[in-house]
Amino acid sequence: MHDLIKRNTPGISLAFTTEIIEKSDGKNTYEIEAQNGKIVLRGDCTISIAMAYYRYLREYCAVNLAWCGNTRLKVDAAPLPERKITHIVEQEKRACMNYRAFAYSTVWWDWERWEREIDFMAMNGINMPLSIVGSEAVWYHTLRDFGYSEQGALQYISGPCYWSWQLITHFDTNLALTDTDYVEKRLELGKKIIKRETELGMTPIMQGFSGHVPRTVIRLLKKARLRHNPAWNNFATTYQIEPSDPHFKKFGKALLEKQLRLLGANHYYACDPLYDSTFSPRSGEYFKSLGKAVSALYQSFDSEAVWVMQGDHIKEKMVKAVPKDRILILDIDGNGHKSTDGYWGYNFILGTKNNTGGRNTLHGSISDLAQTPYLQAKTEYPNIVGTGIFPESICQNPLYFDLALEMLTQNKAVDLDKWLKDYAQRRYGSNEECLSDAVLTLKDSCYSEKCTGPETGSIICSRPSTELSHAAIGDTMDLRYDNKLLFYAADAMLLATKAETDGYSYDVCDVTRQTLSNHARIIYRDVMEGYRTKDPRKFEVSSNAFLRLFEDIDRLLQTRSEMTLSKWLADARDAAILDTDKQNFEINILQQLSLWGPLNDTVLYDMAWREWGGMIKTYYAPRWRMLLELLAGNFKGIRRISTVTRKQPFGRNDYRGSGFYRNMERLERNWIATSRPEEPSSENTVIVARELLNKYRKAITEE
Fold first, then answer.
1. Residue 407: C-alpha distances to residues 77, 118, 381, 386 (Å)
2. What's the confidence (pLDDT) of residue 145?
3. Does any domain span residue 576?
């Protein structure tokens, strides 16, 4: 624990002493107290002491440590606490990480970044992190043991931006790896991660086996019986060893034993057979037999094994085939237990998700979080055993996630207005009233009760159309709050004269970005109205304003490197070993952010849209320009053009459903092949944000 303190606050590390105490009624407990001129941190385990340490820093040093902005602690003084603090944690298990976050956020992290993340998890009380780094090597070496060639094994392992989806059985491979040295590099990183997590007292959730295997395995397991599973969103058919086939256990046990030798084991194994699949046999017998097979495999390998399963696409027959003490269900978004009668009495963790695809829209109901959903659910479902945080991306919405992380271990509702005022001081390093006014206004706008559920779609990132219903699958184009409120919040932030933290700069950029992005809705409406009513002046003025807004938002975002496409591409190149992989990893990112896949027939396009510097200028703006030029060329036509396609998969235009969209596809594919966005700029974020808010002040306040 001393090493964690020294890593994070070296200047005050000698001010602390730590002591181990007993649990309180079997629950994690910590205490903070001043004694003999020292700050004493007590806890029943290392994680509890880490929670005490961070609680002290928040309350007495007014710190904010976050995933975006304020990513490192800066503390020089350690005042002695004037009272003793005791806290009992009601939530036994506190889980963290969504499979998709390993692709959308952590994909290029090195050990230095992971070390900071593990400390951050410990300080927030996380004791069950999903740990899948290095699973690439487990699969690679298992396939090699079964007779695959080096290239054959590599070809099965999806590229870094898609491996997570392969682990949950969506496809066999996509943009596959090409370098065995990279596989070994991931293995070494995974070893360090799991070693540090276990040293701190965490129980890593490791990857299990669901029966999903390469189609080519039939060449080596010649008598194996394989089941064809329906294609997921137009990807190729996947294959599953029949649960009654002896090869199910043989292959699965070999994989788990390889993982044990390479990474270790901690009794919790995650797998989601046929996750989000349309496969639905006429009876539930197949799901039942599959549940029994997975459970039996785990028990034969580890007598203490617990199967960890995501609860958002759960199959009742599969779950009920397993003893109740052998499954732990992750209620990813906190809603699954409501439609399953509390997961039929099986242990579950109540989660918070808040975003899909890593889209960086400001969104989420903080009032719901502040009410401590765990304690509310506990009164009805005694089988709830903890809390979890499962965002698909961790690089957005810092306010929402700061509260969500705190509520993982809270045992009562918080006074939200007071919490927000304290947050403003911690986040911005200033107690100026304009800053607390700003965050309180966020509560009434993008973080209001109306903003629960689906994310707000971005007009900017939407694939251009004369009518828009979704930017991505599952989002909503309804704004659900008054953009003038968000403008007020951004404006209030810029009144501050003492705020100098990185979190302040980040939030000024982010809130201004969202305000301007919301304003794009109004300009888009004017563009289409000018076209439909054959008003050439309105159409021309609005079209030009629309594209200028893209340029302005791009310029703002270029001032924050973590909000730029250039930075993410640079991180991808740095993660590669071979020069060929540098290009491969860039393609991984560019395809994920645009067409997603599969390239030949995607329905998932723009699933992971980002309002990022470089992305807006080089990708989204040219697409919109193509539509505006089409409309301008037809302006005098008798009939008005509609780009709405006959087929509407997931409520959106068919990707290649018209000549216009086939032309756009060529633009998009060319962007993936040739994208070279500008480097982040050296402009001052706050100065640029102030300039842009003043530029759009009249237009937004008159919306």
1. 27, 18, 18, 11
2. 97
3. yes
Q: Are 677 and 616 in contact (CB under 8 A)?
A: no
List, for residues 230-241, the tens digit of each pLDDT value. Answer: 899 999 999 999
> In this structure, are residues 43 and 29 in contact, taking their beta carbons and an 8 Å threshold?
yes
User: Between 536-557 and 685-701, two packed helices, what is the crossing angle to 10 degrees?
Assistant: 150
Judge if 33 and 181 occupy the same domain. Answer: no
Residues of the chain above pLDDT 70, percent: 99
Domain stops at, among 42, 69, 88: 88
Q: Which residue has the tokens 């969202």?
A: 514
Pairing, β 212-213 against β 306-310? unpaired
Residue 394 and residue 396: Cα distance in Å, rounded? 6
Average pLDDT over residues 63-67: 98
Residue 285 lies in a domain: yes
pLDDT per residue as tens digits for the range 398-415: 999 999 999 999 999 999
Q: What is the pLDDT of residue 260?
A: 98
**Do 292 and 350 belong together in one domain?**
yes
674, 666 Cβ separation under 8 angstroms: no
Are 103 and 185 within one domain? yes
57 and 171 both lie in a single domain: no
Phi then psi for 42, rounded to 5 degrees? Answer: -115, 145
Helix, strand, coil percentages for the chain (3-state, nearest 5):
50, 10, 40
Distance CA(140)–CA(155), nearest Å, equals: 9
Confidence of residue 618 (pLDDT cuts 50, 70, 90): very high
Is the CB of residue 130 less than 8 Å from the CB of residue 97? yes
Same domain, 83 and 98: no
* 252-263 per-position pLDDT tens digit: 999 999 999 999
Q: With respect to residue 98, please indicate whether it lies within any of the assigned structural domains.
A: yes
The answer to whether residue 279 scores a pLDDT higher than 70 is no
What the block records as the tokens of 391 is 């965002």
> How long a stretch of residues is the chain?
703
Average pLDDT, the chain: 96
Cβ burial, residue 520 (10 Å; 0-12/13-18/19+)? buried
Burial of 411 (0-12, 13-18, 19+ CB in 10 A): middle
User: Quick one: pLDDT at residue 219?
Assistant: 87
Task: Show the tokens assigned to 417.
Answer: 């207005």
C-alpha distances (whole Å) from 450 to each of 212, 302, 404, 480 are: 40, 46, 17, 6
Do 200 and 73 share a structural domain? no
CATH of the domain at 388: 3.20.20.80
Q: pTM above the 0.90 mark? A: yes
Point out the domain boundary residue: 88, 109, 144: 88
Tell me the two tokens of residue 140.
Answer: 């690679």
Is residue 41 in a domain?
A: yes
Q: Are residues 134 and 50 in the same domain?
A: no
How many structural domains does the chain have? 3
Give the N- to C-terminal CA distance of the chain in Å, as an integer: 54
Does the pLDDT at position 281 exceed 80? Answer: no
Q: What is the pLDDT of residue 222?
A: 84
Q: Looking at the structure, do residues 266 and 340 belong to the same domain, yes or no?
A: yes
**Structural domain containing residue 6:** 2-88
Residue 643 above 90 pLDDT? yes
CATH number of the CATH domain containing 69: 3.30.379.10
pLDDT single digits (tens) 340-395 = 999 999 999 999 999 999 999 999 999 999 999 999 999 999 999 999 999 999 99
3-state secondary structure of 456: strand
